[in-house]
UniProtKB/TrEMBL annotation, chains A, B:
Annotated protein name in UniProt: JmjC domain-containing protein
Any one GO molecular-function label of the UniProt entry: tRNA binding
Domain JmjC residue range list: 108-269
Region forming the signal peptide: none
Organism, scientific name: Ramazzottius varieornatus (Water bear)
Gene3D superfamilies named in the record: 6.10.140.1470, Cupin (2.60.120.650)
Gene behind the chain: RvY_03643-1
């Protein structure tokens, strides 16, 4: 496990900005002013304040959700009922039964806009009754914010390893959370398919199936209510809610807007230059298609070593 | 050392063609009818027949010629004088001295056309007095021949590891030769720079400098006068003349002509589709240049895994 870093709100704003803008490493920022949500957002309060607004949530009998080989279903529930189902048991059990014997269902809610295809999520708009309780951390520039996502989860629930293309902070409001992050430099050890990893649970990895995983260096962050975790764009992350958990996470444009996919409402579509680069490589591979297969393979390796060479040069520049 | 294969001229033409067209593996074809050169081309005969035509030859104090870090010079000599210098000593020494004490110079001649920039070599045109002594092996189609190159070498001289983009046969006319070949699938273990390897002598490799070389599987062929070695396009080859050595090697178009670089007179310029593919990859890498270096590197690896994926698929197809 690699070292983690904790800043405090009474550290200078320059220090926080230095981490975000220059160091570009994850860190916990503690004691931020994030509003009354820290004391108010108990399950009963949230249920009664939001009421029966229907929400689409993830439901599973597994406590480690997989996106790539889905082991959950989407169900639509009134928000109050979802909160009741998600909060009715602690990590140890529901009180009515002895933990593992329980026919427990795990729930996870990631808020999306009503018009999810065109509009990024913003809980301040979609949950107006909760909005006054939350304050965006002062080190973020409001005009750069892309989305502001409410997330609620059952206790003991882990969520798939993935990355986003935007910087974000996770404001942990209620419950404890364990965050496992990986540097994008380790991506080649993490068996990615798109923005998600084929590795189901980075705390329990089958090394026969995923032998390269031993080379990946996890950064582990233990979050308490009120903690703010900075997750730089492209850092892979796996999140385990240890208790019933409520969080708000705020994505922002850390690069010029025109670099992002303009239709992306989640923050996980690749940057535009990569789209064009990937098309270029696809076309390059297509050029070789008329050749005998052994010559194609020979030239594919030569193309690959062009990229290896560029990686070597860029490592020297970034070192 | 991997297995080698020897065919004989009284094997059916179909068998030879099957190796060349379908198996695409190197082989020795023995007892081919290649003309009176086998008995006639002794040094004195060649010198007196060709006379004093000036030729540009490689001269070195080393018996292992390097192209990439050149350890030879080009000198222009009358052909008869070159033949005398190249043939005056055997592997053991020149007779006048005790081998290694000798201030020996090694010579190598690779015939080129007078107009080398525009015309491939053809010794049948440029050495008309030798031409009647040589017969092109009957399994080759005359209309596909690209070049027909006379090569003469001192005893004990090794020549750089490289590949050509055309199929070719080496007709060993005089002296013995040792040929060390590598499958193009092993190219990634051979430290190529363009069509040539940085490995100076594959029989004496510094494994600290070239650790991957241990994974490469050499195919070793021991050629006697009269032997014809088929070297498929892209197979890497290193040649050691054990005696004063004369050979003719014939390159031919094994793919449609438009795939080749039309300005190539040596047979070692990459095929046209690769030029276009390489440009495509260069442009793809350029697309990423505006991004921060860590994101560039992340996306370069994604581009590389696109190629890895294509290599995986093509391996399945070729298996």
């Amino acid at each position: 496990m690699s070292q983690t870093s904790v800043l405090r709100s009474n550290d200078s704003r320059e220090l926080v900005e230095d981490w975000i803008l220059n160091l570009r490493k994850p860190c916990i920022i503690r004691d931020c002013a994030v509003g009354e949500c820290l004391t108010k957002w108990k399950p009963d309060y949230m249920a009664s304040t939001v009421g029966h607004k229907p929400v689409s949530v993830h439901e599973s009998s597994s406590n480690r959700l997989r996106f790539l080989k889905k082991n959950f279903t989407y169900v639509v529930l009134p928000f109050a009922e979802f909160i009741q189902k998600a909060s009715c048991f602690s990590r140890a059990g529901c009180g009515d039964c002895a933990g593992d014997d329980c026919d427990r269902r795990y729930y996870y809610y990631r808020a999306v806009a009503d018009d999810v295809r065109n509009t990024p999520s913003d809980f301040r708009r979609d949950f107006p009754s909760l909005s006054p309780d939350f304050t965006v951390p002062s080190f973020l520039q409001p005009e750069k914010i892309f989305s502001c996502v409410l997330r609620c989860s059952s206790a003991d629930l882990g969520l798939w390893l993935h990355y986003d293309v935007l910087d974000n902070v996770l404001v942990q409001v209620r419950g404890r959370k364990r965050a496992i992050l990986f540097n994008p430099e380790d991506a080649e050890y993490l068996y990615l398919s798109g923005d998600k990893s084929l590795i189901h649970d980075p705390e329990n990895v089958d090394l026969e199936e995923f032998p390269l995983f031993v080379k990946a260096r996890p950064y582990v962050y233990q979050l308490e209510p009120g903690d703010v975790l900075f997750i730089p764009a492209f850092w892979l992350h796996y999140m385990i809610s240890e208790d019933f958990s409520v969080a708000v996470n705020i994505f922002w444009y850390n690069l010029p807007r025109e670099l992002y996919d303009q239709k992306d409402t989640y923050g996980n579509k690749e940057l535009q230059p990569y789209f064009r680069a990937a098309q270029g490589v696809d076309r390059a591979l297509k050029q070789l298609e008329g050749l005998p297969i052994d010559i194609q393979r020979f030239y594919m390796r030569m193309l690959r070593s062009k990229i290896d060479k560029a990686l070597g040069l860029s490592r020297d520049r970034s070192a």
